[in-house]
Design goal:
alpha+beta, 107 residues
């Protein structure tokens, strides 16, 4: 189900998707979505969802990450450890349009 303010994932499809990538050695890190306003902090529904994910062994993580984008594009990142309070984390982003200059070793 998807509306402007609610989304419910297809659990069976998602599990098949995760199984394919887990077989290739890739791991599930977490979830992302957007909120229709400027509030990019986890809702009660978000907190419940990530708490369930952290407890389910098939996700292969006990600390899922959630990225939530506000309407403006501002992103919040939170970590949701199993059986503990969630906490914010800082994202260090890289602008792919900026050229980086490697420093030469000192002689």
């Amino acid at each position: 189900m998807r509306t402007a303010t609610r989304f419910e994932r297809d659990v069976e499809f998602c599990q098949q998707f995760l199984n394919v990538y887990a077989a290739q050695g890739l791991l599930y890190l977490g979830e992302w979505h957007s909120h229709p306003d400027e509030n990019n902090m986890p809702s009660t529904t978000d907190l419940t969802s990530l708490a369930r994910i952290a407890k389910q062994p098939q996700y292969l993580t006990t600390m899922p990450i959630m990225l939530i984008f506000a309407r403006s594009g501002e992103v919040a990142c939170t970590v949701h450890p199993v059986s503990a309070a969630y906490y914010p984390c800082v994202l260090d982003t890289v602008d792919p349009t900026v050229e980086t200059i490697e420093e030469s070793p000192a002689h």
